[in-house]
Model the fold of this input.
Amino acid sequence: MTDSNKIAVGIDLGTTFSVVAYLNSSGVPTTIPNTEGDLTTPSVVLFDDSNVVIGKEAVRAAPLEAESIANHAKREMGNSHYSRRIAGQNLPPEVVQSLILEKLKHDAESVIGPFDDVVITVPAFFNEPRRKATEDAGKLAGLNVIDIINEPTAAAIAYGFKNEFLSQGGESQQKEIVLVYDLGGGTFDVTLMEINGKNYNTIATAGDVFLGGIDWDRRIVDFIAEEYKKKYRGLDPRDNLAGIHRLMREAEDAKRALSAREQTTISFEHAGQGVRLSLTREMFESLTADLLRRTIFTISQMIKDAGLDRNQITRLLLIGGSSRMPVVKKMLEQETGLKPEKSLPVDEVVAHGAAIYAGLLQSESIDIEQSIKISNVNSHSLGVLALDQQTNRKKNSVIIPRNTPLPVIRGKRFFTVKENQKRVVVKVIEGGDATGKNATIIGKCIVDNLPKGLPAQSEVLINFSYAQNGRLTVYTRLPQAEREVQVTIERVSGLDESAMREWGRRLDKPGGLFAK
Done:
């Protein structure tokens, strides 16, 4: 399946845990254990004096070194900085993620040998800035990111190979409509896919990048904290980071226990005083019922938007560690009438699919006709913030609607407003309502060096191109001059080329981020 000189590697870079897989010599996807012998690595970074510690050791240190811990950085991808200063520095989330990727690469290479090429997975609902940030994190870690693939797509590929509803070449034996429910540690996606022959077509996707297993954990955190406050006259263990880290560990353990049995006991100590509490599965499900309802609503809305009925769905795939909760399986069986596929561990399936996809990409030069074809959709509309001439108010002028099959190129005409105008500046946005409210501002599209002597109302055509992996590029031309003109995107978040070089230099120096 792959070039004999290359290793096909897939990385599931998760909010709470990350996984690496590769295709072994028999072409079978295999999870690579880290140096601690575990198949999953906590996505937690400890900045300890002049050292950086990643994974299980960082988790153990969190209650005592809370101010030096960075976790859940995946939720902050696309932002300019991590939510608080770490080690006295404002670190971009890309840098935090790159440190995790470096650890994953180092550990994997100790098992399978050197590699550079990887496929990294992202939530289907990740917008373009978050996708760019993920690519940039890979570059800072010294990886060659040959592609980014949506987590549900990767899962469908992996399940298909394992369950043999896909052949070894990735071809389905019959047409399948697959619903992929992805409830990870920090994000939630639901995706409908049609698999027909070698064509993997995403029909629709929806989700929430701020909904995941840690939100279920936080309900247990609040339950413990409120009981503690009752017993100790208002003392709240959530008042400092150390207390929060201890609470989160207890909550995560309790959540996992309740996936296996009906009741668990929680013992929590803070400030030399403790509580011992009983929590039943029924109580936990009551505490989190509204979170589950949010996912049900998202599923219903997505199926409606896709123009399908539930009875057209032929397979149900669950991915993400939080999908292990019994109430999730029960709800989905009621909603779809289907039993979920169970042949692969929900924590590993995404990385397996990414490794298979990496192998298919690497084999394309040998026999491209044997490769599967993947068609995604954009999870957010792409538009520009324009001025409504009738109301004189800003509006979201959508160029590429949500759930448009990718890749796609769409153009929009703009006009100069004065004679001899030198540039056109357009604000590019993703998502949002008709007024542009709640949209993500990608940045300014700047058309420079317009030719001299252009009259007012001269047409400037800007083409917006979404690639298969959800990354955006922009092209432009002047129809009346029949020429291309320079165009750049001045982004409002993320790292530009100069910042990438600077952070790359800092990470490469002896002492890394701590070097003076």
